[in-house]
Amino acid sequence: MNQCTAVALLPPPKHVLALSAHNGHHRPEAGHILCELAENHDGDHSAMLWDEGGRPGSAVWIRWSTKRARLLPLPWCPARDPRNADDACGLFNGHPSDHSWEITDPTDEAITSELARQHPHLFR
């Protein structure tokens, strides 16, 4: 299953901008976020912003729709890849789509295919 292609522009929170005003050098800029769920998923789009050490609920996710965006600490999905039990799902518990090992990023696949074509000796 391909990855969802939803993208959003996430502005820095107002309190971060206020703290950076005292710095005088660099102000945080808005950044693009990409949905990490499988295409045609139900509900909000989702992307992990950071993880504070792998503890339950330590990953901070942004969940967004056309009307709102929320930052949420969510626990990791406990599912393990049946092909390799050492690989866990890289999404949050209760995510509304396939597990991460079942999702293909079409852009990454296209880049890898082109690199393999140009440099076959690197892709045996």
The percent range for strand residues is 25-35%
End-to-end C-alpha gap: 25 Å
Cα shape: globular
Sketch the major β-sheet. 3 strands, antiparallel
Radius of gyration, in Å, reads 18 Å
Structural class of the helices, strands and pairings? alpha+beta
Estimate the mean pLDDT confidence. Answer: 88
Total beta strand runs: 7
Low-confidence stretches: none
The residue fraction in helices comes out at 10-25%
Largest beta sheet: strand ordering: 3-4-5
The number of helices is 2
The SSE order reads EHEEEEEEH
What attributes characterize this protein structure?
124 residues, alpha+beta, two-stranded antiparallel sheet, 3-stranded antiparallel sheet, globular, 16% helix, 7 strands
Please explain how this structure is put together.
With 124 residues, this protein is of the alpha+beta class. The chain has helices spanning 14-20, 106-118; strands spanning 7-10, 31-34, 45-51, 59-64, 69-74, 80-81, 84-88. The strands form three sheets. It has a three-stranded antiparallel sheet, with no helix packed on it. The protein has a two-stranded antiparallel ribbon with strand order 1-2. It has a two-stranded antiparallel ribbon with strand order 6-7. A hairpin with a 2-residue loop joins strand 6 and strand 7. The protein is globular, with a radius of gyration of 18 Å. The model has no long low-confidence stretch (mean pLDDT 88).
Short description:
The chain is of the alpha+beta class and 124 residues long. The chain is built from 2 helices and 7 strands. The protein has helices at 14-20, 106-118, and strands at 7-10, 31-34, 45-51, 59-64, 69-74, 80-81, 84-88.
